[in-house]
Each structure stands twice: as C-alpha cells, then as structure tokens.
Amino acid sequence: MIMRFVYQIDKEGEQLENYTKYQLKSSDELTSLLADKDNLFIIACNKCFKEFETVDEPDCAEFEKLAAEQGKTITGSARVDFLCNKTQTEKKLQDMIPEGTENVFVISCGLGIQTVADMAGTPVFAASNSLNYTGHHGMALTKKSCDACAQCYLNITGGICPIVDCSKSLVNGQCGGAKNGKCEVDSNKDCAWEKIYRRLEKQGRLEEFLNQPVQLRDYSKVNFKVINDYVKSVRESRFEGYYGGIHPSERKEFTEHLPLERFPDPEVVVIPLSMHAGAPANPVVQVGDTVMVGQKIGEAAAFISSPVHSSVSGTVIAIESRKHATRGECMSVVIRSDGKNTLHESVQPHANPENLTPDEIVEIVREAGIVGMGGAGFPTSVKLKPAKPVDTILLNGCECEPLLTADHRVLLEYADDVIYGLKAMLKTVGAQKGIIVIEDNKQDAIELMQEKTAQCSDIDVVVAKTKYPQGAEKMLIKRVMGRQVPRGGLPADVGCVVSNISTTKAIADAILKGMPLIERVVTVTGEKLKKPGNYIVKIGTNTQDLIDYCGGVTGDDITIKAGGPMMGFVVPDANVPIMKGSNGIIAVDTDHTAEQPCIKCGRCMDVCPMELTPLYFAKYADEENWQGMKDKNVMDCLECRCCEHICSSKIPLVTKIKAGKNAVRGMK
Amino acid sequence: MLITQLKDKETLVSLAEGKKVFIVNCHGCKEVHFPEKEALEFQKELSASGSLTGVITTDYICNPDNMKLRLQKHISEIEAADAVLVLSCGVGVQTVAEYLEEKKVCAACDTYPLPGFQGVTALEYDCDQCGECYLNLTGGICPITACSKSLVNGQCGGSKNGKCEVDSEMECGWERIYRRLKQLGRLDALKCPTQVRNFATDKDVSQ
C-alpha cells in the first residue's frame, strides 16, 4: 500500500501532493532481511519535495521499532537532509557510524542508499523502495501535468496535454468512448479531448486544429547517455573551485563596452558621515565654512571608523540628518558647490612614494578615508595591518554581480593605477604574492592585466570561471588558494588579504596624487533604465540626479536598487547620496510574487556556498527558534542571496536570516 | 528534474510567423536545463522584426499563484499579442495556458524526461525508481542502472576486460557488484534466489 498525503497549499484549494520518494519495505521482507544481521546503524533521509512541517520522518522510528522487536542491537541512528547530496553527506558521514556497527541500513530513495554504499566501509542495506513518479517535475507538484515526452503537443491542443490528461494518451483525437464528457476509463475525469476541443473553439482555432496532420509519437527521443553526460558536465562546472553558487543571467552587455564618463558636477552634495563599517565620523567643519576639494570634513571616531572629505569646493550649508540608502537617516554634511573645484592645500602628491614605509602607507590610506568599495565599507587601513602574517593579496576583479561593470571598466581604464595600488599593498603587509582574479566573462581585462603584469614576478593573473558569489572573500580564497577560512575567521587567518579593484585604485590615488576618496565609478544600468552607462561620480551626488541624467526609467512599476541585483538593496526613495560603496544603481522590473510554503526542494542547500541549510533558517525564524538557527550556523551566512534567488517558493530567506543573526547576536 | 530543448528553427518560425508574440522565459530550473543562449538569439530576431510585444524572463512559472501575479502586470502587452510563446517545460506552458485561457499559448520547447535524476540534482543516473530496491543483494550498486541490460540476476557474460559489450566505455555493472560484495565479504548474497522484476508503476501497485 502506498501512502500519499495531500494538503492544502493555499486558500484557493490548489493542492500540493506530498510526494513521498520512498516507502519502507514490507515488514515480512525487512524481517527476513534482518534475520542474520545485528549491530545495526540506521540512516534515514528526511525526504524532499514535501511539506516542511516536521523535521523528522516517521520511517526511521518505525524501522527501529521493528528491529528492536527482532531483538537487534541498534548502535545508533541519524536523520539526514538530502542524503543524495554527495558533497554534504560525505562530510556528515565521516564520524557518524560508531564502532561496533556491522550493518548499515538506509531508509531513502535509491540515490541516497547508493551514496551511503559508495562511502561506508560497512555493508549497506536498503530498508526502503523508491517510488516511481515520472511526470511530477516542475516545482509545484500540484499534479502530474507533463510527462516529458520530448515532443510537446501543447501547440496543437491549446495548452492541454493529451498525453497526461487523456487516460489513453491519445494524440490524434478522442477515442469515442466518453459519456457526458467523462472518460470511460475513469468516470471522475473529464474527457481531455473534449476539453481541448472546447478551448480551441473558444479561441477560434478549430479549423487549424482539425486540419492538423497526424503526429506520431516517437518513443526513441531520449538518450540517457547524452543526458547523463550533460548533467554531469553542468554540475561539475558549477562545483568548480567551491561548493554551490549559481550563474544568474549576466546582463552586463548594457554597459561593459561603455567607457567611463565623468558625471557633471552636482550643485549640492550631501556627504553622509557614515559610509563605512564602524563608528560614524565626527564633523570637523561648521555651517557657513568654505571647504575645498579633498578637505577633511569628518574625523574618524574610533579604530574601526573612517574620515570623510569634501568632493567639491564651496560652502557648508547644513550639517543635519539626511536620508541614507542603507541606514534610513544619517548625519550628513551638505555642501553647495562653487563650481570651481579648487583643490585643498592638503592634496599633495607624496614626495618619494618609493621610500614610504609600510606604516606611512597605512597612515595615508587611513587619512584618505579609504574603505572597501565593494559595498561592505570596512576601513582598508585596518585590513592593511593584519594580526597574522599574510603571504598573498587577492585582488577581486570578479565582479560576479550581474549587471555591474564598474570594476571591469576601472581595470581597463586605470590598469596602471590598480597595479600600483596592489604593489603598495604588497609592500605594506609584507606579502610575497599579489593575485589579480578576473572572471572569464571579461576577456579584454584579462588580456590587458596579463600584458601589464608580464614583467612583475610577484603578480599573477588568475582567470576564474564566471560564477556567483565568486567575489565573496571566502569563496575567492577557496577558489584561488584552496584555503578554507575558519568559521567566524578572517582572510588573514589563512594568510590572505582580499581587496576590491576600485579600492586598490583609490590607494594609488591617495599615494600618487594625495587625493582622498571623494569620487568613485558607478554603473547605472538595468533593463528599465533608458541610457545605461559607467560614470565617475562625486561622493554625495544625488542618486535621482544620476538616474535622470541617464534618461530616467521606462514604466512606473520598477525597482531601484543600490548595488547589483543579488546583494544590492532596494532604494524606495532615490533622493539619497552616492556613497563610497555605491558600485551600481540599477533599475529593474519589479517581480510580483508572494511567499508560499517551503516544498523542501533542497535547492537552497544545493546552492549555498557556505554549505548551510537555508530551509531551516526560514522554518526556525518563523518559529522564533533562535537557538536552532545558531546551531545551524546562521552566523556563517554571507547573505549572498543565492538561496533566495533559487527558492521556488519565493521565501524571503535573507530577511529571515538577518532577523536570526540579530537575535543570535542579542543572545550573548 | 528535467531538460528542455528549444524546438527546431522551422517550428519556431512557423509559430511566430506573421504574428505579434509575447514571450515568457522560465529560468527556474535553468541549470537542468534551459537553453538560455539559443532562446535569447531567437528573441533578438523576433525583436528586430518588430513582432515582439513583450518579454518576461522569470523563474518557476509552474507556480500558478505567483505566475498569475506576474502575468497580470504584463496583461496589456499580452493582449496586444496574437500568441504567447512559452519557453519552459510542459508544466509551465500549461500553467500559462490555463490562466490565459482565451489566448493562443504555444510551447517553444520540448521537455525530456529524466527518471533516475530525482533528489537534489544528482550527478549520475543511478536510480530508476523501479519500486523494488535490489541494492541489498548487490552491495549497494544498482543493477538496473549500472548494467546496460538492467539484468537483475547476474552478468550476461558478454563483457570484455571488465567493459560492457553494449557500451565499451562502461564498466560491467555486475563485475562492479562482484568486486564490492567480495570486498565486503558478502559474496554469499549472490546465492539469493532470483527476484522477478515487477514493471508496474506505483500507481498500478497502489490500486
């Protein structure tokens, strides 16, 4: 007897079949299987494609009971998610099976059983049978509606499938056996061909339909070997370098070929005193003061903090709380430009840049207000004084975010500055090697950097396969160096420092020109923006002005994000200033979706580069089970949004994860 | 798990010829596999000829509730089109067809079945969901998928140097099973009586 549960997925009564992937073998079979075996360890898969209500499935307990009744010794049992996930199961299995175990029993579909059998040194037995459920693909599994016949008939039949909906899978019209519109095989079922006829009649397509020649069904269409090879190659290339990750549509063609353009000087700039991780800067100017380009207007307030500088020359007209893209509101210095861009006296090239000591370089970087320009805004001067010896500096030229091309253009147009900045960093931290990592979708940048660094024995260019989130520090280090940053650790723990391309160029500017960080390259793009481009923009420029300059947006139902589509954050009001970490402003289509129950498809776990289990974060956040989230290592999450991107139920996973992280921080 | 392939050029052209079309692309399961590049190329051609009224590129269009929300937003573009072309698996096409009942909704892809690739995107085709697991007798190597002939009672005798006679690049599944059982000291499992395979699907079995 096969058990299937049906439950309501929503108020409209759409039903999701709780598709059991396996069932325990009959107790007779299990009893005879157990007859000559003892000292059992039991592994049960928690199943996939099902409602995610209970964590544990009943099968394991049922089997344990049966074995106990036979007087068997059970050395232990484990319930595992997605047993067929080889990478993760291998790690879990390492210390799982206790000494003294003679036989391992697995309750799972055939994939899970074979995964365990391939890895365990002990005999492995199946306590369950897989079920046959061909045709239940798609995410919803509401019903079987496509048999994957490899020759879609839907064009002829008005979008109703004759293979599935007709009991006899007839492809050339009704059998003639229907009575009152009901199928003769199953009287509860509507005759599919009557449904097809009625729909086509409604669309006025009967003529076209009735004149269609007979189409034979070709049962030989599918070649497993081809599919096998295909799937394997796709998976292997996705796992290259590190587990998980995704490849969202790049859409970089809007701007990757467009040279940098200087954005016209704004009349007024609003410079937030907090554009970095750590304490906001303290203002050192007053309303009415005249300021110059590069003049310090805010002083670092702590060790983890950063000064800020004026990006124009003019008059301070206000120091007040203004709208901020990520913090809601923030103290900001508002300056009206005099349009002259007079340089401040402090902006002077450093004499003898070659003779600067590491400490002097750190001081220059600190004073120039340089922070990580990839978005996180960690003060670079702090990074340049690592607590542990560093042998390698990785320059992150991946720009794995779709749409963005700011770093790509900086690499092409300021190659020498980037290399200079890298050399300065090598000298500062005493590293032996600098590696510029570029993804293979930026061939021109790869060639240019290879040519420019051909003579530098301490600088290499590494080409990485395009994959998101390659630019995340931990992924980059794993991909390039094969080193694993420990849980809760920093790159320096494995002898690395990772720096962003624009940040590195800013270091060169600070040393060579004495120019603090007052402008940056911003990609303004998206399919809903009229004239995309790459602009050199002064910090404090209004985002809305930037969008208007690019022709504005098309349509009214669009989403503006600061940053890329993956890690960028929604900007509900574009009247916010461009900041040190603003690498992009994008205008994209608003996606209208509503959160639905988790169906345990396992894809979030499959793409998580940190090898976490995002589905549990959603479940536990809803239950406010913060301890559970902590136990599942929520603090390791990078918030790269791969899980949310791939989620078939559109669960706002990152929001839930952030809530969990806050709660866990509060627990201490 | 599934693979979709774009229909051949001729069919695609005939679907769109002389018509205004609206396109829905589904990237939900794109890793396995949506023909993204080919689809883009086809849409560029359509766009150049001015016969495109709009495009949605999205994911999991088989989720009816979310698909409704998304289609509603583009309804005027859809109304302006003579036909809606859906690039997805058959489930997706039917979801859209059901919502746009009055509109001609066409499938631009064929869907290929992948039984055996269930679970979370498995690397290999190594479980055929036969419904009567043989793994206990074979040391955890599946004779249905590891043997070209899906023999359940031992080797056919046709293998040469450990390679299958059907596919010379494939290892003989029964030699693998023998080695595994030997390694585990379970060669006596081969003495088990013959198990006849029941080809009925679970649906039949449950009835």
What does this structure look like?
The complex is a heterodimer of chains A (668) and B (207). Chain A is of the alpha/beta class and 668 residues long. Chain A has a six-stranded mixed β-sheet with strand order 9-22-21-25-23-24, sandwiched between helices. A four-stranded parallel β-sheet of chain A has the order 5-4-6-7, with helices on both faces. In chain A, strands 10-16-15-12 form a four-stranded antiparallel β-sheet, with no helix packed on it. In chain A, helix 9 (358-367) crosses helix 12 (415-429), helix 11 (406-413) runs parallel beside helix 13 (443-452) and helix 18 crosses helix 21. Chain A is globular. Chain A starts with a strand and ends with a helix. Chain B is α/β, with parallel strands linked by helices. The model of chain B has no long low-confidence stretch (mean pLDDT 82). Chain B is built from eight helices and six strands. In chain B, strand 4 (83-87), helix 5 (90-99) and strand 5 form a beta-alpha-beta unit. The chains are: A alpha/beta (668), B alpha/beta (207). Chains A and B meet through helix 4, strand 7, strand 8, helix 8 and helix 17 of A and helix 3, helix 5, strand 5, strand 6 and helix 8 of B.
Strand content of chain B: 15-25%
Q: Characterize the overall form of chain B.
A: elongated
Count of individual beta strands of chain B: 6
- Whole-number radius of gyration of chain B? 24 Å
Mean pLDDT across the residues of chain B is 82
In oligomeric terms, what are we looking at?
heterodimer
The share of residues in helices of chain A is 25-40%
> Structural class of the helices, strands and pairings of chain A?
alpha/beta
Largest interface, counted by CB within 8 Å of the partner chain's CB: A-B, 90 and 81 residues
Approximately how much beta-strand content do the residues of chain A carry?
A: 15-25%
Concise synopsis of the structure shown:
Chain A is of the alpha/beta class and 668 residues long. Chain B has helices at 9-16, 36-48, 64-73, 75-79, 90-99, 143-146, 173-183, 202-206; strands at residues 2-6, 21-26, 52-58, 83-87, 104-107, 109-113.
